[in-house]
Amino acid sequence: MSAIIECIPNFSEGRDPAVIERIVEAVSTIPHIEVLDYSLDADHNRSVLTFAGPPKQVQRAAFAATQMAAQLINLQTHQGEHPRIGATDVIPLVPINGISIKDCVSIARDLAAQISRELGIPTYLYEHAATKPLYKNLANIRRGGFERLREEISKPERHPDFGEAVLHPTAGATAVGVRDFLIAYNVNLDTNDLHIAKEIARCIRESSGGIPSVKALGVRLNRQKIVQVTTNLTNFQVASMHDVYMAVKKEAARFGVKVLESEIVGLVPTAAIAKIVQDYLHIKNFSAQQVLEYKILAKKMGWDSVDQGS
Amino acid sequence: MSAIIECIPNFSEGRDPAVIERIVEAVSTIPHIEVLDYSLDADHNRSVLTFAGPPKQVQRAAFAATQMAAQLINLQTHQGEHPRIGATDVIPLVPINGISIKDCVSIARDLAAQISRELGIPTYLYEHAATKPLYKNLANIRRGGFERLREEISKPERHPDFGEAVLHPTAGATAVGVRDFLIAYNVNLDTNDLHIAKEIARCIRESSGGIPSVKALGVRLNRQKIVQVTTNLTNFQVASMHDVYMAVKKEAARFGVKVLESEIVGLVPTAAIAKIVQDYLHIKNFSAQQVLEYKILAKKMGWDSVDQGS
Question: Is the pLDDT of residue A42 over 90?
């Protein structure tokens, strides 16, 4: 039985494609690793890489990426709005199939230990991998970014999980975590009134009493002269894209505003779209197991006996 | 770049699981072949096996299955309602990805030639693989089943594509074809009135002026005391499950009847459910390429450059 972990490291370089290409190259040399996507964000001066593979190979690939990023990226000269603490800023691991969260956490801890030991970069464990309650939330680790962490890392409440309480001079620190699959889903509104998008986001997000497992913000899309409710679904079994779409549509109607369209940023698991089709067409017992390519992959990977439906 | 063909052979034995298990075993020994499903139908005394793999391996596996079926199944003693001409009755090949219909037809012809040459079983080519217009439609090949074909095979209009114009004494003949992916989709109605199901089926099927690429029949589900519109979608890009669901719902409403639920029998391609989600949530540019497991498989198979969206 082979397991698959998805890994989505974020690097503090979003303007020089050559840097990211060399990191992707380093990852690609690891056997059984599939690079699924990478993209640069020049505004935030950061980039996101997505790859997947068996647990130990994912660890090797994430380590190779971190090593390469440490050679090529210097946080002392890096500028960017997004909070970041390191050249390899954050390494989220997502158990896709054939592996439990617990075993994925073991990989995350091995990886974090290896990065501090072999590269001299202090590492933090967050979300499911966290060992300290405060570090469950990544925002608490990254607070104030590289510049502030450099001053505060010696304080006990900001100590890393692995390594000395001093930042790597150029590569900073890295947060390694395990989280559930996250769907980035946006709904565009037929208005340019940011207040409306913000109000709808407030109504639907969990943190202000809305839909469980949904994070939402209202933002403006300058080029299109419209506003958008941008969301993260942290558990598609609890709240689906359809739930969010319908909720936004309903709230928008209160303002007399129409929904234009929606978009999925990045990847979604087969199980997430199978669930929507099942609900929509009132299908009994439909699952990812009935989706041809999922089934072929599951057979190749030997997932049959321990399918986790995602 | 690796291609994948799906193969769904039908065998004239649906009561003795041991026979099918030995056929499945023969297929499973071929490298890179994934057995996706198999099921026995005792009423029709036939069974269906689904497997997938690279073209040449699919040919080898289909041949191995046909050889094993010829050893274990005797058409002279076989009884069953469904029209059938051989121990291995029909071998449909479906190009899934990375292969054109033309190249899939080459595999079908090689396979049909090999079966007649090495097993002494005459073979017919149908649908995309047909060489004669009459044989495009499988029904014309199977007309009257084993018993009638035994009498008529010597007539020029019933000659096989490969082999002598005489049936194999026990294994009969085999039809090998290439067809598009077919979705088996049923909609259950909240009534026991067969007339209504038949009338709705008549309205929606292509052959009586309904939805292009849809085949439909009205049938009774005795155990549940309801009726069903059972359909085959021969091109989900032309007519989706959602199109059929909505059409059945609308026609049913004319009779004051409600739709209870629907069901997918067997497998559907990722592209078919991605299309439904795209339409439902008004998503711009959503495709199978954004579905995680599809993307992993596509990377493993090297489909990126020639993706056919299914």
Answer: no
Given an 8 Å threshold on Cβ–Cβ distance, is B262 in contact with A280? no
Q: What is the model's pLDDT at position A83?
A: 82
Distance of CA B128 to the CA centre of its chain: 13
Question: Which of chain A's residues have a Cβ under 8 Å away from the Cβ of B274?
Answer: 273
Low-confidence residues of chain B: pLDDT under 50: 305-310
Residue B63 host element (H or E):
helix B55-72
Q: Which of A37, A185, A296, A308 to mutate to test the interface with B (most CBs of B within 10 A)?
A: A296
Chain B environment of A309 (Cβ under 8 Å): none
Contact B173, B167 (CB under 8 A): yes
Which residue in the set B280, B290, B291 is minimally distant from A280, CB to CB?
B280
**What's the confidence (pLDDT) of residue A1?**
61
Higher pLDDT: A43 or B211? It is B211
Token pair, residue B144, equals 């009257």
CA triplet A262, A267, A268: central angle to 5 degrees?
80
Q: Do B281 and A262 touch (CB under 8 A)?
A: yes
- Section A10-37 average pLDDT: 96
Q: Give the integer Cα–Cα distance in Å for B289 and A273.
A: 13
End-to-end CA, chain B: 16
pTM of the predicted model as reported, rounded to 2 decimal places: 0.88
Q: Which is higher by pLDDT, A98 or B204?
A: B204
How deeply is A70 buried, as exposed, middle or buried, from its count of CB atoms within 10 A (0-12, 13-18, 19+)? buried
* Of residues A67, A64, A18, the one with CA closest to residue A38: A18
> Considering only CA atoms, which of B186, B261, B271 is closest in space to residue B228?
B186
